Amino acid sequence: MTPIQKTVAVLALAAGLVATPALGEPALVYSVGGKFDGSFNEAAFRGAERFSAETGEPYRDFEIVRDADSLQALRGFAARGAEPVVAIGYNQAAAVASAAKDFPQTDFSIVDMVVEAPNVRSVVFREHEGSYIAGLLAAMASKTGTIGFVGGMDIPIIRRFLCGYRQGAASVSPDIRVLFNMTGDTPAAFADPARGAELARGQINRGADVIIQAAGGTGIGVLQAVADAGVLGIGTDSNQNGLYPGRILTSIRKRVDVAVYRNFADAKAGTWSAGIEVLGLAEGGMDWVIDDNNRALVTAQMEAAAGEAAARIADGTITVHDAASDGECPL
To answer: Alpha-carbon distance 281 to 13, whole Å?
Structure first.
């Protein structure tokens, strides 16, 4: 489908949403990059699917092609009576704020950004807690003493992720070297796997033998590059261990699926409420994955160290610096 055809499809569907009678179903509007991006959006999809499988209730979803499509999609779902309408991604914040004002009786949610309105639930994550575990594991697995980080758009959330990663690595060795690059300064930075692969190859050429991606769809290119080079990658958002078995050290899951599921389930139970919900290790909002695809890569010592760090972060014994709210990373 050409870009023009995609745009026509967006407008046609959005128009159809407005014209359709109210259904009262929950609705989900994905960020750019597509439902099956292998990362952030796909995690949201799995949360919606879990809700539907457990309750037998349908839901509606929509893939925007560009940020400008968001407001029309949100308004379309609200006009047909969807409850709640959940938007995925910080880039939909302005659209959610506008739609929430236009439809004050509709419940909206946004994942990964805060929108202050009486009918909006904002779900954000303590990404730095999960990335601390990633940095710890990367440093323990590295044979060169150099590890890497490829981020998507250069925004506070990704800087927070980077700082946690650096802190986790430093907890293993103060001499560990962390290379890092951001892909760009627009949302397109999360949907450029070719650029992600290019940045990863550059870090590999400089000695990095473990590289984490925090770049959405761009990160798929990062993981392909590390697999091709015979080094290790770390996935994020979804469990990406199976993309390149034996080459993905672990995946740091940002439980977007949990956020979507809770929104849908709370609405069905009549317990949905507006406000800010913050999810970290203690709340099950972040975790790391061991499965058959990476078990041979994680030694008992690594697993024990990561488990201990996660427990100490969850109970507050370890405080991970939040570069988005506490200022520049101290490392």
So the answer is: 38
Based on its alpha-carbon atoms, the radius of gyration of the chain, rounded to whole angstroms, reads 20
| CA–CA gap between residue 192 and residue 217 (Å, rounded) | 7
Q: How many residues are listed for the chain in this entry?
A: 331
Strands 248-254 and 286-288: antiparallel
Between the alpha carbon of residue 36 and those of residues 33, 217, 315, the distances in Å are 8, 9, 35
Give SS3 for 254: strand
133 HSE (CA, 13 A, CB side): 32
Question: Which tokens is 156 given?
Answer: 């506070």
* Confidence (pLDDT) at 14: 45
- Asked if residues 160 and 324 have their Cβ atoms less than 8 Å apart, the reply is yes
Handedness of CA 151, 155, 158, 162 (dihedral sign): positive
Cα distance between the two ends of the chain: 46
Contacts of 191 by beta carbon, 8 Å cutoff, 6+ apart = 32, 33, 37, 216, 217, 218
Tens of pLDDT, residues 40-92: 899 999 999 999 999 999 999 999 999 999 999 999 999 999 999 999 998 99
pTM for the complete prediction? Answer: 0.83
Neighbouring residues of 135: CB distance < 8 A, sequence distance ≥ 6: 147, 164, 165, 166, 167, 168, 169, 170, 171, 172, 178, 212
Mean pLDDT to the nearest integer, 15-24: 47
Is 89 in contact with 111 (CB distance < 8 Å)? yes
Cis peptide before 84 (omega within 30 of 0): yes
> Is residue 7 predicted with pLDDT exceeding 90?
no
